[in-house]
């Protein structure tokens, strides 16, 4: 909403959110005319862990596309803790050794790499 008229493409990545919550955000963006320059990537709470895991990477790839084409992009991850839960679920299914609180040891590395790309 604050980026209106500034030639910025906004990318909102909803990870593990309820559909009603995402619908409220989209409705608010539509009210303020922000959907003209906003992309919504949604991997809802009912979606597979693999989709929730991939959603932020899809969003950051879109942002990199706009960056590479000399445009500005703003990416919002909502929220990375649900991304960590999805990654933990996938790692446990793949029988990777768990770390602290059953999260894989490289989850923090994953997030730092993701945020560095953003």
Automatic annotation (TrEMBL):
| Protein family | Belongs to the ATPase alpha/beta chains family.
Subcellular location as annotated: Membrane
- Signal peptide location: none
InterPro entries under this entry?
ATP_synth_F1_asu (IPR005294), ATPase_F1/V1/A1_a/bsu_nucl-bd (IPR000194), P-loop_NTPase (IPR027417)
**Database matches in Pfam families:** ATP-synt_ab
The principal localisation class reads membrane
The domain of life for this entry's organism is Bacteria
MF terms per GO, please? ADP binding; ATP binding; proton-transporting ATP synthase activity, rotational mechanism
GO cellular component terms listed in the entry, alphabetical order: proton-transporting ATP synthase complex
- Alphabetic keyword roster: ATP synthesis, ATP-binding, Cell membrane, CF(1), Hydrogen ion transport, Ion transport, Membrane, Nucleotide-binding, Transport
Give the species this sequence originates from: Campylobacter concisus
- Name it: ATP synthase alpha subunit
Q: What do we know about how this protein assembles, alone or with others? A: F-type ATPases have 2 components, CF(1) - the catalytic core - and CF(0) - the membrane proton channel. CF(1) has five subunits: alpha(3), beta(3), gamma(1), delta(1), epsilon(1). CF(0) has four main subunits: a(1), b(1), b'(1) and c(9-12).
Ranges for the ATPase F1/V1/A1 complex alpha/beta subunit nucleotide-binding domain?
A: 2-118
């Amino acid at each position: 909403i604050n980026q209106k008229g500034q030639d910025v493409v906004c990318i909102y990545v909803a990870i593990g959110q309820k559909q009603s919550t995402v619908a409220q955000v989209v409705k608010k963006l539509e009210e303020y005319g922000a959907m003209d320059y906003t992309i919504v990537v949604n991997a809802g709470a009912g979606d597979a862990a693999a989709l929730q895991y991939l959603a932020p990477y899809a969003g950051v790839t879109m942002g990199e596309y706009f960056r590479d084409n000399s445009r500005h992009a703003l990416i919002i991850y909502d929220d990375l803790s649900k991304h960590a839960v999805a990654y933990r679920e996938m790692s446990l299914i793949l029988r990777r050794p768990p770390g602290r609180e059953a999260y894989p040891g490289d989850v923090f590395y994953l997030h730092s790499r993701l945020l560095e790309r953003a």
